[in-house]
Amino acid sequence: IFAAALIHRLVLGPDRSLGWSALIAMAALTLLTYAIDAAAGFLGARRFGATKWGVIGAAVGGLLGLFFGLFGIFVGPVVGAVAGEFIGGKQMVKAGRAGWGTFLGAVAGVIGKLFIGLIMIVIFLMNVPSPL
User: Fold this and answer.
1) More confidently predicted of 90 and 26
2) Domain for residue 14, yes or no?
3) Contacts of 42 (CB under 8 A, 6+ apart)
4) 15 lies in a domain?
5) 40 is in which domain, residue-wise?
6) Is the pLDDT of residue 14 over 90?
7) CB within 10 Å: which end of the chain, N or C, has fewer?
8) Overall number of domains in the chain
9) In Å, how far are 4, 85, 116, 118, 130 from 27, measured between CA atoms?
10) How confident is the model at residue 70 (pLDDT cuts 50, 70, 90)?
11) Is residue 85 part of a domain?
12) Measuring CA to CA, how many Å separate 9 from each of 27, 36, 57, 116?
């Protein structure tokens, strides 16, 4: 969304597009979405009792999941968290809780990014001058 707003500004110029303050606000919100993405799965896993092995496993699973599309983005960290907990010596129930926490954290991150995306769309629409 930020990239589209920036291209809009570059193509149409400052008179018919967003001002710099709106672009800076959108850039800050874009950075916030990256922070949410990085923290959501970690916080979810930790909330459900993951150890450092589960968190490391979730990170590795998340990276490997990138190669398997949307399905891999959600399943990779979960499988990685469970595998990491197994490596760390946890039993199935505790490892499964860490995986579940990772999944819930990822879902919460997606919801947070969706909300921020809607805010960015509103900022764009409120700051672009009417073509009439």
Assistant:
1) 26
2) no
3) 55, 58, 105
4) no
5) 23-127
6) no
7) C
8) 1
9) 11, 37, 11, 14, 23
10) confident
11) yes
12) 13, 27, 42, 20
